[in-house]
């Protein structure tokens, strides 16, 4: 067992003619908190979506927990495309928090959180409900369990989104710009919850964000993506205070001014 | 249009209901049948060169006349008191008895209109607007057992598929339809219905909009002459009318037919 | 009669169907504009008239309308001493266009209302009269909006023409019935009929698409 | 006399009143035919929608052609086809059944689109969220997609029910005694078409205005986000 | 004839329960260039829209060119609500440039400019076209006459908007935030054109803007609006360098920092 819980090995991803990831190498250690920053269209979301198995890959190999994600061992030892059963097994290791929350609007907050644990993990309703209550408490929404998503503010919705992902007990949690669809005054409450998670849990966290100050605070490592490649990476101090690449400097000066 | 207008323009509009052999139009547009053939001869006598044939549903014949969609109907429509109140009839051109079209082999063993009154399981088809409806009602047939079809041509399908057990129509219509398909036949050993103590016989004539007496009188005069000729008898027997039918056609006057009952 | 002999009478019927579709679609479009614009009129009388027309013709069955115009209207005319005996072709075109016009009116109204209020304000600031605003600003922008729905309505109208065969108008469906009368060859005749209508609908759809393209050229003009 | 009811020709008003019960018997048939046809359209439309959504073009393409064909050909001709052609292949349905079937087939092409639109309106983000939570495809469909699609589908379906009702008179050509046919027969017998046909128009107007109002009411009652489960 | 071309006398404007203008007194001299600044919702646009007769008033009186705008003299000498004919006559004195340009998307640039002169003023097509060419030249778009608005950039659209308003030869030109819907790099070209107009023409100009630097450059007078009243007004120097009201100071410091 290696130290890396996530490993991208020369991964290629195309949309039609557009090559979004071009031989990407990238890895994340167990328990590490990694922020991904970079200009729009550079492939940040794509990396998360490949991990969450929402997008397939065209070349290379992705490993999660030392097992290939998009491939599986055939009987004769060669690798073949992953079956749905394999994907389901792998997916259980990951949870994702979406930019637009993607809550189920027809289910109460509690049902949003308990539906998958009951149906997928096979928890009893009582167990799932108890875990749901703990999680709602964690995200500060203990009193909103019976509301519907339509009755919540954006920040509350996103906190439910985080609780829903945690309810599946993933070992890796992916965040795709969790605050960029929020009104500025609601951003803080969501970042607080994420910060608490980062401090208190040994979860591996992979976070795409435009909140530079926040990325700096919580990350062990920051990766700067540009055109489907990692241009530069390092500790937040290295990257934010003394970037070595011209491109990184440009990007940082643009977003920190804006 | 009035007689004068028709003679002026040289064109008359005559309707048929697409019933073989009374009056129908073949796919080339040629009008044939007992009504049209006699009408052609009459129009020639009246000096009208051009006939515009109109095909319409039987139930639209009287409304069509009233709405001036045509000047005359040559469908051998039966002369009945009710109808006389709506339109004008010429003197009878033909007479005909009743018949029944049934599925091949006559599986339900039907031989008379009265059978439908006696056996409530039998369903009989009639054409919308045709006088068989009155007969069935007189005989006490349950309304629920009447299947009203829109045109003669639908009768073969209706009877052969069992949607109705028989189609009640004139004997000529029934035999005409029977000759078109192997799936149907004319009910054998048919007895004519007896209504009001008399065997039913119908007298068919040409029909005009009320108020158009001039045209009717002119047609009547020409018809009376034409009925004396061999051509008339040949025309009708060519379409399957029997000698009894021919003789019967002069047995009643329109005045009597309109007044009866 | 061999099935190839059906082509003659059927093509005569098809020509009648095409004419019926053409006339009633054009007249229907005119009615649609009149009623659609009338529905938005500030004048209460005009507006009520348009609403009544739209509701009555959308709310009743086309066949009922057709029969009413053909069978009942002459009697109504007689009762008031006016000759309202419409020839079948007129009754047919009228029923079809009144019906399609009522549906089209809602399309016209929707499209006119979809033109942004900014445009009305700009027109007002330039001192266009309400009528000029309607014809020079609103309607030209609304037309491309209506075209897809009008395309559907035109096909609907083509299909509806088959109903006029029931008032003895010699259209495609009527001719087919006549042939069946003779040959009892239902399978062949109805199959040919369905395919012919389908073909005509495809052509009509293509035609409406072309029209749609021309009506909305300015919308596709992008840098 | 029709269906055991006499009519009274003494005055237009008396005539209208006396034939109202006759027309209402026809109206019952109209509503029955519309309901049955609607049921067929709901089921068959779902079949089309599913077939058209199958990834294999060998299945989806024929389904698309067939529904386009149904949609582009007149109900009247389809009705004739079913009524006269099916018996030649040994399938004899009563006129009423044939009529309801024809209505159902014609409208299935439209309801298929309603299903498709309703299902597609539930965005991909909902599917992705379900996938990220490892919900099975079947469960995603029945518990995530369908409950959210229903509120969009129901009002559109309601409008088609109203349309079907307006097409029922076409069934009169195959001897179904719906309201228009009944009025026509009364007209054939009394030679007065004005009153029966105008009454049918009035009955229809009331029926569709009420039904459309019902659909609008239903629409306003439905939750906009989805039907909550339990 | 007084000096004032525009005069608001105790004007009241309400939207339902909301009183947007509350006894507003305000006037503009012939040929004056006046900028209106103020927080969002303070009623700036409403003033312009009342002048352009896009909104009616609930009380008070507006005079343009010494004639009442929303009223007219009845036969017995009393004032009654203006008829459409009166409004049309008055509207001819004013032109307006909109925030969102409001060009007619189905007409070419040239037709946008010539349509109203031909249809409303009754110019011949040739005259209108010639004037259109001069105006397009003025706004620097002589070569774009045949394009459709959809093919232009935001800055070009707004310049067409200005040309269109000028084509009607108004004596007063109203601008409602003419640059706030533009990308930052396109603002300059529009301000240039407006500046040129201000310098070279004796037009009366009334300008709602958030571009403080620009307001300062071109205006004879700046009015600070707050909650439907003029809080403070004066020459640009007075207002920007030494505002006397606390509220003005607050507002200026907020916008000048932003
Ligand atoms: N489903 C898709 N089909 C086609 N192109 C896609 C698809 N998804 C993403 N892309 C393209 O792939 C590229 C990378 O997309 P990605 O969403 O990963 O960027 P990103 O770095 O997350 O940008 P942003 O900050 O805007 O979210 C973009 O050019 C995008 O347009
Ligand atoms: N049509 C309307 N109906 C109701 N309220 C309106 C309407 N138009 C404007 N208002 C309200 O009137 C107030 C003043 O609006 P106005 O548009 O004049 O503000 P403004 O000073 O131009 O603001 P901004 O800088 O945001 O454009 C606002 O509170 C606005 O919400
Ligand atoms: Mg992204
Ligand atoms: Mg404003």
TrEMBL record, chains A, E:
PROSITE patterns: ABC_TRANSPORTER_1, ABC_TRANSPORTER_2. The lineage of its organism: Bacteria, Pseudomonadati, Pseudomonadota, Alphaproteobacteria, Hyphomicrobiales. Residues 6-252 form the ABC transporter domain. The keyword Nucleotide-binding applies. This is Arginine ABC transporter ATP-binding protein. Pfam families: ABC_tran. Keywords: Amino-acid transport, ATP-binding, Cell membrane, Membrane, Nucleotide-binding, Transport. Belongs to the ABC transporter superfamily. GO terms for cellular component: plasma membrane. Its main location: membrane. SUPFAM superfamilies: P-loop containing nucleoside triphosphate hydrolases. It comes from Devosia chinhatensis. InterPro entries: AAA+_ATPase (IPR003593), ABC_ATPase_HisP-typ (IPR030679), ABC_transporter-like_ATP-bd (IPR003439), ABC_transporter-like_CS (IPR017871), Ectoine_EhuA (IPR014343), MetN_ABC_transporter-like (IPR050086), P-loop_NTPase (IPR027417). It is found in: Cell membrane. One of its GO terms (molecular function) is ATP hydrolysis activity.
TrEMBL record, chain C:
Keywords: Amino-acid transport, Cell membrane, Membrane, Transmembrane, Transmembrane helix, Transport. It holds the Pfam family BPD_transp_1. Belongs to the binding-protein-dependent transport system permease family. HisMQ subfamily. It is found in: Cell inner membrane; Cell membrane. One of its GO terms (molecular function) is transmembrane transporter activity. This is Amino acid ABC transporter permease. The keyword Cell membrane applies. GO terms for biological process: amino acid transport. One of its GO terms (cellular component) is ATP-binding cassette (ABC) transporter complex. The chain crosses the membrane at residues 20-41, 88-108, 189-208. It is a multi-pass membrane protein. Residues 14-208 form the ABC transmembrane type-1 domain. InterPro entries: AA_ABC_transptr_permease_3TM, ArtM/GltK/GlnP/TcyL/YhdX-like, Ectoine_EhuC, MetI-like, MetI-like_sf. Gene3D superfamilies: MetI-like.
Automatic annotation (TrEMBL), chain D:
The chain crosses the membrane at residues 12-31, 38-61, 81-103, 193-215. GO terms for molecular function: transmembrane transporter activity. Its main location: membrane. One of its GO terms (cellular component) is ATP-binding cassette (ABC) transporter complex. It is found in: Cell inner membrane; Cell membrane. Residues 27-216 form the ABC transmembrane type-1 domain. PANTHER family: L-CYSTINE TRANSPORT SYSTEM PERMEASE PROTEIN TCYL, MEMBRANE COMPONENT OF AMINO ACID ABC TRANSPORTER. This is Amino acid ABC transporter permease. It comes from Devosia chinhatensis.
């Amino acid at each position: 067992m290696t130290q890396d819980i996530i490993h991208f090995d020369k991964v290629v991803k195309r949309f039609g003619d557009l090559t979004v990831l071009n031989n990407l190498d990238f890895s994340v250690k167990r328990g590490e908190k990694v922020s991904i920053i970079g200009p729009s269209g550079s492939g940040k979301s794509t990396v998360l979506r490949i991990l969450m198995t929402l997008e397939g890959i065209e070349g290379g190999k992705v490993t999660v927990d030392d097992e290939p994600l998009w491939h599986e061992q055939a009987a004769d030892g060669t690798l073949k495309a992953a079956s749905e059963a394999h994907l389901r097994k792998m997916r259980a290791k990951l949870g994702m928090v979406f930019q637009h929350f993607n809550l189920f609007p027809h289910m109460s907050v509690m049902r949003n959180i308990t539906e998958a644990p009951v149906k997928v993990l096979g928890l009893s309703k009582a167990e799932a409900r108890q875990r749901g209550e703990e999680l709602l408490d964690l995200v500060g929404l203990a009193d909103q369990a019976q509301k519907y998503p339509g009755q919540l503010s954006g920040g509350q919705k996103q906190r439910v989104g985080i609780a829903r992902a945690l309810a599946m007990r993933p070992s890796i949690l992916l965040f795709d710009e969790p605050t960029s669809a929020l009104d500025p005054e609601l951003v803080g409450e969501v970042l607080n919850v994420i910060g608490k998670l980062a401090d208190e849990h040994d979860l591996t966290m992979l976070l795409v964000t435009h909140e530079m100050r926040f990325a700096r605070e919580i990350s062990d490592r920051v990766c700067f993506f540009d055109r489907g490649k990692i241009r530069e990476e390092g500790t937040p101090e290295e990257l934010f205070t003394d970037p070595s690449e011209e491109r990184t400097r440009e990007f940082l000066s643009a977003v920190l001014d804006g | 249009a009035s007689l004068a207008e028709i003679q002026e323009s040289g064109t008359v509009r005559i309707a048929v209901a697409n019933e073989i052999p009374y009056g129908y139009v073949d796919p080339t547009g040629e009008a044939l049948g007992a009504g049209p053939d006699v009408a052609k001869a009459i129009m020639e006598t009246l000096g009208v060169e051009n006939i515009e044939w109109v095909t319409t549903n039987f139930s639209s014949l009287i409304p069509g006349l009233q709405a001036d969609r045509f000047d005359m109907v040559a469908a051998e429509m039966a002369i009945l008191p009710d109808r006389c109140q709506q339109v004008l009839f010429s003197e009878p051109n033909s007479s005909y008895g009743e018949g029944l079209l049934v599925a091949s082999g006559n599986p339900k063993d039907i031989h008379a209109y009265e059978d439908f009154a006696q056996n409530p399981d039998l369903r009989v088809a009639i054409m919308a607007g045709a006088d068989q409806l009155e007969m069935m009602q007189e005989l006490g047939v349950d309304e629920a057992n009447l299947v009203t079809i829109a045109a003669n041509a639908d009768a073969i399908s209706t009877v052969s598929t069992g949607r109705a057990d028989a189609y009640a129509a004139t004997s000529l219509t029934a035999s005409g339809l029977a000759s078109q398909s192997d799936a149907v036949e004319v009910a054998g050993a048919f007895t004519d219905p007896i209504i009001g103590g008399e065997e039913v016989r119908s007298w068919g004539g040409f029909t005009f909009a009320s108020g158009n007496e001039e045209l009717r009188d002119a047609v009547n005069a020409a018809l009376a002459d034409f009925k004396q000729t061999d051509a008339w008898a040949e025309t009708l027997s060519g379409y399957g009318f029997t000698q009894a039918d021919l003789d019967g056609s002069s047995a009643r006057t329109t005045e009597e037919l309109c007044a009866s009952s | 009669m061999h099935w190839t002999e059906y082509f003659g009478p059927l093509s005569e019927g098809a020509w009648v169907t095409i004419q019926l579709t053409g006339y009633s679609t054009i007249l229907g479009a005119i009615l649609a504009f009149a009623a659609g614009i009338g529905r938005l009129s500030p004048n209460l009388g005009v507006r009520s008239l348009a609403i009544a027309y739209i509701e009555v013709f959308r709310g009743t069955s086309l066949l009922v309308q057709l029969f009413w115009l053909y069978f009942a209207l002459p009697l109504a005319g007689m009762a008031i001493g006016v000759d309202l005996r419409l020839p079948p072709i007129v009754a047919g075109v009228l029923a079809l266009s009144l019906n399609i016009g009522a549906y089209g009116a809602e399309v016209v109204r929707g499209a006119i209302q979809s033109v942004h209020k900014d445009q009305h304000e700009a027109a007002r600031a330039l001192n266009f009269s309400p009528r000029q605003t309607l014809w020079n600003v609103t309607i030209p922008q609304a037309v491309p909006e209506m075209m897809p729905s009008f395309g559907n309505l035109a096909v609907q109208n083509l299909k509806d023409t088959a109903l006029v065969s029931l008032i003895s108008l010699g259209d495609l469906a009527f001719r087919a019935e006549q042939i069946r009368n003779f040959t009892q060859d239902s399978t062949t005749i109805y199959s040919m009929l369905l395919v012919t209508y389908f073909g005509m609908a495809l052509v009509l759809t293509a035609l409406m698409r072309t029209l749609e393209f021309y009506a909305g050229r300015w919308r596709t003009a992008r840098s | 006399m029709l269906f055991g009811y006499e009519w009274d020709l003494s005055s237009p008003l008396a005539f209208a009143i006396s034939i109202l019960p006759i027309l209402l018997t026809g109206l019952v048939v109209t509503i029955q035919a519309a309901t049955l046809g609607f049921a067929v359209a709901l089921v068959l439309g779902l079949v089309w929608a599913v077939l058209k959504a199958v990834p294999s073009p060998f299945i989806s393409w024929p389904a698309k052609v067939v529904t386009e064909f149904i949609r582009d050909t007149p109900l009247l001709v389809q009705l004739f086809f079913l009524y006269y052609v099916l018996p030649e292949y040994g399938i004899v349905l009563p006129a009423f059944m044939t009529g309801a079937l024809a209505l159902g087939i014609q409208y299935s092409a439209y309801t298929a689109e309603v299903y498709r639109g309703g299902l597609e309106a539930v965005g991909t983000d909902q599917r992705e969220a379900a996938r990220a939570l490892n919900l099975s495809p079947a469960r995603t469909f029945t518990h995530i997609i369908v409950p959210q699609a229903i509120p969009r589908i129901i009002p559109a379906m309601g409008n088609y029910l109203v349309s079907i009702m307006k097409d029922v008179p076409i069934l009169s050509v195959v001897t179904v005694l719906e309201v228009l046919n009944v009025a026509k027969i009364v007209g054939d017998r009394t030679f007065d078409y004005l009153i029966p046909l105008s009454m049918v128009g009035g009955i229809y107007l009331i029926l569709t205005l009420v039904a459309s109002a019902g659909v609008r009411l239903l629409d306003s009652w439905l939750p906009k986000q989805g039907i909550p489960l339990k």
